[in-house]
From TrEMBL:
GO terms for cellular component: cell projection; cytoskeleton. Residues 1-22 form the signal peptide. It is found in: Cell projection; Cytoplasm, Cytoskeleton. Its main location: other. It comes from Loxostege sticticalis (Beet webworm moth). This is Dynein regulatory complex protein 9.
Amino acid sequence: MDALLFALALEVVLLQMRILESTTELRLRLHLNTKGEKAQRGKLVRDRHTVKDVIRRTLVEVVENGEWRTLQEAVQTLQENASYSVNVLLDHERLRFSRSSIINEIKTKRKQWAVDLRHADQKIAVVRDRIKNEQQNANARLCYVEKWLFARAESLDMQLEAPRAPAPRTDHERRVHDELVKAYELQIKEREDLLEYWRQRYVDDTAKMDERLAKKREELKVALARRQELQKLYDLHAGEMRAWLTFKSERAARLAREERRATAAKRLQAWWRGVMVRRALGSFRYLKTIKKSPSKSKKK
């Protein structure tokens, strides 16, 4: 019944759309349309054809299966298209805003670049003035240095042209030579004495070092022997400790096994005692009550 009513409603919608389409075509024949109106009319015609197609397929599906899945899918598609158009508009607004912000940023950067360019021109002018001043100072210093060199050369020439002292006498040179020979011989003797002293000290030091090395060698032998004894004692103690640890672990495992066995036995005994109590077995049997037969009253 619902499918029949739905099919009748769809047929009524188709009839209304045909009437609207015919009236729209009659109205458009009387007026000239612009390009925008023609585009809108084309979109309207396409939408009407789409709706007609959906309604026809829905009617066929309702008649055949009693369902209108085609109409539901068409509605979902229209909703997705509407949300897509909204998303496109939002993206357009966001891109337009970003474009305006980028344009403003570029304008700001252009202004900053112009300011930097003016500052650079000013710096270039300052550097040029500084280079010019340095060149002038260098020229002045060069002129001063040239004049100082000329004056120094003249003073040296005047010093070289001065009269030389007379040559020393022969006896004076011999006396100086003898004194130098004595000084050299004294230095040689001092060096020989120092050499002998250091040689004897080297011999004494090497003898002391040999004695010390021999003593250290003996101490090292004693220490090595002591170390071997201690190593043997340590190995023996380590073996005893390993044996003791093994014994402790085995004893702990044995005690744990015995405890588990005792616990299991207690549990089993308790369970069996409970079974005997519940079922009245063995020593837990119920005592039978002896019913006394009523004594016959003597007939009077």
